[in-house]
Amino acid sequence: MAEVFMSKIFQFSTLGALMAGHVQGECHLRELLDSHAFGLGCSEAINGELTIFQGDVWEATAGKQPHPLDKHCVPFVQITTFHPEKTFGVRHITQDNAALLLREKISVQNLFLAVCIEAQFNEMVIRRPQPTADTERDIIQMADTQQEDRLLNITGRLVGFWTPELYGRISAAGFHFHFIDEKQKVSGHVLSFRAEEARISCEEKQTIEITHPDSQEYKNLTIDLSALDAIISGVEK
What we know:
Number of strands: 14
Strand content: over 45%
CATH architecture: 2-Layer Sandwich
Largest sheet: 7 strands, mixed
Oligomer: single chain
C-alpha cells in the first residue's frame, strides 16, 4: 500500500452500489495490502465477509472457519493503514453504548475513524453469508439466508470504521465492525457485542477516497434511492 493511504480511507465502490446488486469482483486486493493494512469488505457475490488486520485478509463464510483471501478481486472494500492516535480502556461496553464511550475521548460526529476494539467479549453476535455460485443473488436473498452465531466468552478484536451520518449511503453510518477471534477460528459481520472491559484504539481519517468500478454493468446500474436507506438499515445494522 502506498504511503499516501496512511491519512485516508481508500474505498472501492459504495455501499449503495453493493446494496443495489453490484457484487462482481473488480478490485484487486493484493495491490492494497501492506503490513499495516486495516479494514473490511466482502468477497465476490457476497460469499464472505472480509476482515483485514495487520496486512492479513480473512474471509468468513457460513459453516466454515475463516481462511486467508488476498489474491482475489472483490466488489467492495474499505481499507487504510492503521497507526492509532488514541488508545484507552473502557468498562461495560456494548454495541449500543460504544459511540457514547468514544465521544468521551474524541468528537466523532463529523469524522471518519478507523477503530479497533480488543477484549474478552462476554457475548458476540455475528453473521456470515451462505456461499453461492449465483452472481445474480441480490442482497435481500443473501440477508435472508445468512448464518447468525452467538458466541460467549470469546477473545478477539473488532475491526472497522466510524462513518458520520452524512455519508450513510457511501458507507454504513455509525460503527461498522467485523470480528475475528485471537486464534483466527471465528469471524464475521458484527450484529452486537458486550464486554466488561475492553481496549479501544482509533485513528482519525480526514479523507475518504472512493474508486468506482469500471465495468459496463456498474455504469448501467440503477440504484433506487427511495428504497436504499431501508435496505442498508435492514442488512447492515
